[in-house]
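Predict structure. Input: CheR methyltransferase, SAM binding domain protein, 448 residues.
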Amino acid sequence: MDLRIIEKWLEERIGLSTETIGTEAVAKVVQARMQACGLADTDAYAAYLLRSEAEREELIESVIIPETWFFRNHRSFQFLQQYVKTEWLPARGHRVLRALSLPCSTGEEPYSMAMMLLDAGLSEQAIHVDAIDVSEKSLQKARNGVYGAESFRRKDADAAFRQRFFEPVSDKFHICSAVRQIVHFQQGNLLDAARFAKKDPYDIIFCRNVLIYLGEAAKKQTVKLLEKLLSANGIIFVGHAERPAFAGAPFEWIQETGVFACRRAAALQPSSAKTARKINSSPIKTPVAAVPPLKPALPLEPIFERRQRQQTPARPTKEGVTHSQVVEPIAQTEAANNERRHTVDMMTQTLDQARSLADQGQLAAALDVCDTVLKTDAVHVQAHFLKGLIYQALRDERRAEEWLNKTVYLDPNHEDALSYLAALAEFQGDFGKAARLRQRIERIRKKS
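Output follows.
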């Protein structure tokens, strides 16, 4: 199945890099859409896709992953409330606080913003939240405002907000009209420059966990858009793995544990200057997804060669060497090389399987597959790295750090592992360690 035309269209239309979710995942979506359309040929489907706006919308709906819940990364919302109380309100005047959720998915994020702002003491009339997403199905659920238990993942911590702002409806909860009136849902594509051309600046922007799915060109375009949309003293909240996308942008990071937010460098107040760090002007190479596409493990060849050298006896002298003494070692070496290549291919395929499982949310199964690789080669660098990312997805910071450190031990120049370790250090509030790790990455890049 040749998906190149479809993959190219997805990247041009919504910025989606298929490497971030895997070609296999795209193939499954396309296969399902082909069946729905009664088409058996990929080329025929590609042609139909390009001439049918309705099918283009259906394909986009199928590849989007609406994974969200109320107050996701609660520390960011706590910092939002702190910023409003200590900085925005004193300088407010008669202004309305403008906030943007992009993309807003099924509405949990923009509603969380509205609830937190109301809790900070703002009136309903003083808050305007725009919520934009490319998916009309997600927007319809957001407008309905009815949510089940899966949207409340902080259990007891969400109880107070749920009691205050929701009405029970059978086994679900309906958000109250006061909050719904604050949030304005709109369909839009973040790559559509004309869509945002006449937007007034926003004091708060949440653009989280979308950049990790975009190609490089779309990332740059999105960062430029955010820079344009942000007010002079505004704040942008992003996902923890998305910081490298802002390298070189005129922002500084807020240095608060567990808060991944930045603002214009010129906007820093004396009191907040201590909690911000200038974004490095040199980009740092970091995976674009929580579980990025795996390449064949580069360190495998040197490791196998080193083992081969350790197991190879000393070369015999030329005197008295028979024909069999020359031919047999050559044949053995050829067989060993073939076996080595086969093993490398098998382990690469096995890790691709682990990544596919992780993409589908089957994290425990993905860990088991990684362990299978490590039983064959206990020093497989990419298997160590993938285990670190999976543990991070499981929110097990201790084990994530352990396996990422093992990755760096095996490959001291593994920029991706070092970047994730730096992000973990910042999340834990150890900004000195994070800075040292990023300096180490810079030294590696200068040598390469």
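The radius of gyration is 26 Å.
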